[in-house]
Amino acid sequence: MLGTDPEAGDEAWRARLGIVLQSWRDHGKWRVRELLGHLGRYYTPYGTPERARPYDTDELVSLVGLTDQADTPVARLSGGQRRRLDVAIGIVGKPDLLFLDEPTVGFDPQARQEFHDLVRRLSDREDTTILLTTHDLDEAEKLADRIVILSGGVIVADGSAVELAERVSGKAEVRYSRDGEFFTHSDEDATGYVRELFAAYGEAIGDLEVRRVRLEDVYLAMVREFESGQRTVAPSELTEVTA
Amino acid sequence: MNAGAVALRAGVHRGWIEFRQNMTNAQDVWSVVFFPVIALIVMYMLRGDKVPGTDFSLGSQSIPGILGMNLVLNGLLALAMALTMDREDGTLLRAKATPNGMIGYLTGKVISRAGTSVVGLLIPLVPAAFLFDSEQGMGVVMLPMMLLMAISGVFYPITALPEWLQWIAQGFPIYWLGLGLRSALLPVAMSAAEIGESWRHLETIGVLGAWAVIGLLLAPVVLLRMARRESGSSVAARRRKAMQRPM
What ipTM describes this predicted complex? Predict the structure, then answer.
């Protein structure tokens, strides 16, 4: 990881990592701004001219949307606010690599949406690689440039959401109604099929819906494939990528 | 600036914040004042006797011992409890995940606990100055609190105990803390009630110094060991266990 065996990593190496676990409960008595300011101090010596460490506390508080809670004791934050604070702590040292371990588990749709926006803001903003684990495949599809599927401790798939979908099946599902009767059709060229459909029936076509293969289908197909023994080795070695 | 020095300064900052939290949280304040308040009440109610062979009130004689015991309660027991809690809620893991975080954590804990212990000393000392003057006598005070505290000469001159018990007591820091505080607060004549009829300053410094050195040497080792085994999953497992435990 970052060119170093984690077992042998020193403090300078640690300063380049940010870790956000599923549910931190630490520092409940501390106030949000106070805690971020304190933890930021440790990173000062590891700043470089290109990457000044740590984050400015107020900037960080507003980045994760906790400005109104800046002086609230951590124990009094809601679940979603707490998780956003954990992300702030994770990135206070401007890490090269940030781990997010199932960050949206137990979130309501709104909190989940806010969190996704935050992750997108982060990935746009700094030169930081984000490694996010999740069981929510929609989330992975929405957020990730590259998706790695683990099954039974082995990597069974590795690629972008589109690449993975192509690997399993190039087909998309087209649903429509014609004169009140419903049809479902799978086609590799869904756009072409729909064009022909309109050319042939015109106004008679209704309720049109084109459904691409979702990551969830890819996942299920890959895991099934893997478990049936068709694929017993990882499809590709993980290679070093730069964000 | 050197990263270790930065962490040390962050630790001082941390110590101050934690100390402030200890002093502004009702539960923490209660745990600091609880014992001295009880001890003061008991001593006040049992006033009567003098230290055998002297004209000095037993109440005044026992104040320094109670201070010593309070120091142990706030400095050691409360510290152990705080460590357990920090391990359970992931504070220790957080320190491990922060560069040089363990240096800051340890420095902060030593400072905040030392500050809290000083407050724990002042609480019984100030009212005691008003409650007991040397004219008033006090009864025999022997709270069956803890065996070690009982034999450490906290409430009664240790010379009244069998010699083998005196030897055991002298192996622990409570006796020496009490002795040191008595020598600082009581008239010279009161040393007559001590072992060897002396305050034994050199021995006090030696024994307490040794305990402090051992403690400070062991603390980082023990903490690092505790932290090495910390991981997100171990904290999660402990939390699950804690939630199953009936409150």
Answer: 0.71
